[in-house]
Design goal:
Order of helices and strands: EEEEHHEEHEEHEEEEHEEEEEH
Strand content: 25-35%
Number of domains: 2
Mean pLDDT: 94
Low-confidence stretches: none
Helix content: 25-40%
Shape: globular
CATH topology of the largest domain: D-amino Acid Aminotransferase, Chain A, domain 2
Structural class: alpha+beta
CATH superfamily of the largest domain: D-amino Acid Aminotransferase, subunit A, domain 2
CATH architecture of the largest domain: Alpha-Beta Barrel
């Protein structure tokens, strides 16, 4: 499957046919990127994703000019040019290098959303020892991604959870993770993880729903003490976990289902607000 799908992509503001897409940057050890979801032709939580992209650019030592001032307009242009109703859009920031100019690319990538059965019955995860060098920045670590993909393939699991040198669980390879003990929700501290957009909204919902929430380190040997687990992400929304290695968890745990339903309402409310502000045809 090619990295860039559909008919057009954007490079430095120019609309170009996808047949001319250069994906050689994928072989770089690391690169800055962002991914967000399009539903009904509308980019979900685009403001949050832009803010995180700015943070990543800053943490990576680049200037703010690396992101075009008309970013949201460019995204809308790409959506309209491809008549995209549903899918994932990826943004890649490549600084100037040797004789190559800097590049800001926006394109549609292949997506894999959980099935209705996975949302209902939960998914299996496996632990993997590894950390991202700069967890607060959304920078692709190609080697780590390759390693976690191999774990998923060999162990036939949906996702891997990263475990650091202190034997604490930090995050998924493509997700954030939440644990439930009794009525309390626990998630690893922000300093150790990517500040996920879905994570941010789930934490806000916990506050609104008066669900106790703590950010603290989660030792891997505490998995047997947890009553439920779920992961969050752009493609995953709020996804129950049925197993982590040998530990089993009920996907129908009430707090998990409550947050799953609340987040789905949050998405619909956001999209409805955006629809109301669309220009009249």
């Amino acid at each position: 499957m090619p990295e860039c799908i559909h008919k057009f992509f954007l490079r430095n503001g120019q609309l170009i046919e996808s047949t001319l897409f250069d994906e050689s940057f994928l072989s770089k050890p690391q690169y800055i990127y962002e991914v967000f979801r399009v539903i009904d032709g509308l980019p979900l939580f685009i403001e949050d994703h832009l803010e995180r992209l700015r943070q990543t650019v800053e943490l990576s030592g680049l200037t703010a000019e690396a992101i075009p001032s008309d970013f949201e307009q460019q995204v809308q242009r790409l959506i309209e040019a491809n008549a995209l109703q549903e899918g994932n859009i990826k943004v890649v920031v490549l600084p100037a290098e040797n004789d190559r100019e800097s590049a800001f690319m926006i394109y549609i990538m292949e997506h894999q959303y959980p099935s209705a059965s996975e949302f209902e019955n939960g998914v299996a995860l496996a632990l993997h020892y590894g950390v991202r060098e700069n967890p607060n920045a959304k920078v692709m670590d190609v080697k780590l991604r390759s390693n976690t993909n191999e774990v998923k393939k060999t162990q036939q699991v949906y996702e891997t959870l990263l475990v650091d040198q202190d034997h604490c669980i930090t995050e998924g390879s493509r997700s954030n993770v939440f644990f439930v003990r009794g009525e309390e929700v626990i998630t690893p501290p922000l300093a150790d993880v990517l500040p996920g957009i879905t994570r941010k909204h789930v934490m806000k919902l916990c506050q609104e729903l008066a669900i106790p929430l703590r950010e603290e380190k989660v030792p891997e040997n505490s998995l047997g003490q947890m009553d439920a687990v779920f992961i969050t992400g752009t493609s995953r929304k709020v996804l129950p976990v049925s197993r982590i290695d040998e530990w089993l968890y009920p996907p129908d745990y009430p707090v998990v289902r409550q947050l799953q339903a609340a987040f789905n309402r949050e998405v619909e409310n956001y999209l409805q607000s955006k629809r109301q502000h669309l220009p009249a045809e």
